Amino acid sequence: MQSLRRRLGRLLWLSLALLLNLLSPATQAQAQTHTLSFHDDVGRALTLKTPLKRVVVFNRYTTEFVRAVAGMQPVVGVDIDSARSHRYWPTVTPAMLAGQGQSSPNFEAIVAMQPDAVFFPRNSDWQKAATVLGRFGIPVVVVTAWDVLKHEENVTLFGKLFEQAQRAEKLNAFYRRYRDLLAQRLQAIPPTQRKRVYIEEVGNYRTLLKGSGWHDMVELGGGINVFGDVSILDQPSARGSVQGFSVDPEEVIARRPDVIVKLEPAQYEPHSRAFSAQVLETLAARPGFERLAAVRSGQVYHISYYLAGGCSKIIGALQIAKWLYPERFRDIDPDQVMRVWLEDFQQVPAPGGYTASLAELRK
């Protein structure tokens, strides 16, 4: 009898120990950890444990995706672009600075942050980052959030990496709504009747070529990039890249743009009206530009990067479409779409005032 009692007692203690082990925080965390295998934006096969709890993010577009899908709690490090505006990034502190930019990461700081993963876009120095951080067992994931054509793919991946599929689908539904609206309303316009657009980066006569997200934004908005036929592979490196390509002033005039769009760098806060007016008046006064239909009709526009780049540039495409074909997009207000992006997905107020036009100045 005593032997039976001892055996029963021992069995009870073993059962209790097993139960406590199963209920322990470490075991619970282990039980909730999964693995995800996928290919990143440059085709590398990666396998990560999910959900990601600590990440370092380079490029603000990617940081915006993380905030929209998972909130800012997992973000332990950012580059300088996401540390400039405290109003836009209220949870970012100086201690979270992981580098000056996507091509100049501070590897020592990143290692000290002990991230589960570090995100870089494909136009960064991700190869060096992968080599250096790989020595410390820190994976580098290439995700190009500024690429309007990869929006759904990128957001779906974030939903899986952070195990926030519902929030990811909500963002994708928002994006699809306007992508499909653009396609439906523009499909009836034949290529020969589409408006010709000269889009210029910061700096005089610096345009954007095929392969840049800005070129895709123009095309999604129903425009024809007047320099869209230029292949960067056939050009001397001194003229720049797809993200900023130097053109001759006479070349711009010869290509007869119907509309001119001037991009200017900006943070969350919009440019002042005085700044926009100076940009537009200076551009319109360039030698020979008075001959352009765009200048004569007042269809010269200044747009902040912040609206142009909103939600993978789909809001920028909406604004382009509204400028090019106002009758077809009479009921669409890009500022209101931007408000939803900022207030619902980024959890910050929407100040508005991100665009200006030459026609408005002439009134």
UniProtKB/TrEMBL annotation:
Q: Does the keyword field hold Cytoplasm?
A: no
A Pfam family assignment: Peripla_BP_2
Q: What is this protein called?
A: ABC transporter substrate-binding protein
Q: Is Electron transport found in the keyword set?
A: no
Q: Which InterPro entries match?
A: ABC_Transporter_SBP, ABC_transptr_periplasmic_BD
Q: Which residues form the Fe/B12 periplasmic-binding domain?
A: 54-332
Q: Which SUPFAM superfamilies match?
A: Helical backbone' metal receptor (SSF53807)
Signal sequence bounds: 1-29
Record key words, sorted: Signal
